[in-house]
């Protein structure tokens, strides 16, 4: 987690980064990964950074680390593609296509693309889908790292925990029938649960307030049942990602509850209509604790004119900081009712 978040800070030119992108050419830890030991563009500097992160994170030695590396890499490639650095490549769909178009010729002699081992099958995953998985990984990493650095700042830790929960719901609802994506989701959940378990042993008060990663209807489980190798040929793995899928689910549930209430009212005409549990709950006043949080590793506004990497999760930037207190848990307003329903 620390490697991914630190690399994001450098690439995005954030305050507190231990170096600037322009300094990669002079840093012995990086310039050896540049083409001919010299990075002349930001794309080449990003290429050098990806090689450094690949090796530092042990992506060549551990399949799960390889999966997480590819999630992180997809965020960089998705931003490159979105900003149209190569206009003719508008038909790019997979992670493999994006890598070969944007980075393959912009890195040094170490070709990590051929050293991913069991994670290699993930190259064929949809680039946009993988970018969404990195959002969950980033939220989990920020939860873990904020607790490590500032363990008493509960508000920021719980904010990142809630973001993790919301993104987990989105991913499950979009890919509940794709076993390869469910495998990724299960691994991310296990990483988060390991953190929760560790926290229980050291800070039971915080642990009791951390969100549990569940589906929107409250299922707390692992869902990949038959994974052996990555396979995205199934149409269920190729569906377009729907940012509004949770909203649609809530609307469907509301309509179903309304029909049930009407049916119960017709069957019991003398009984007053019972108010739903959601309606009975009063929303507490907004305004969560203002603890300082770890900088958002992924601002869309980049300093250099040809910087190409940033966080594409505009929802987090524009809405994620708005919170409503429910006991000790801070829930983004857009999913406030979702969390109550569960």
UniProtKB/TrEMBL annotation:
Residues 265-283 have a biased composition (Polar residues). Pfam families: Cir_Bir_Yir. Residues 254-326 are annotated as: Disordered. Residues 254-264, 302-319 have a biased composition (Basic and acidic residues). It comes from the Eukaryota. InterPro entries: Yir_bir_cir. This is CIR protein.
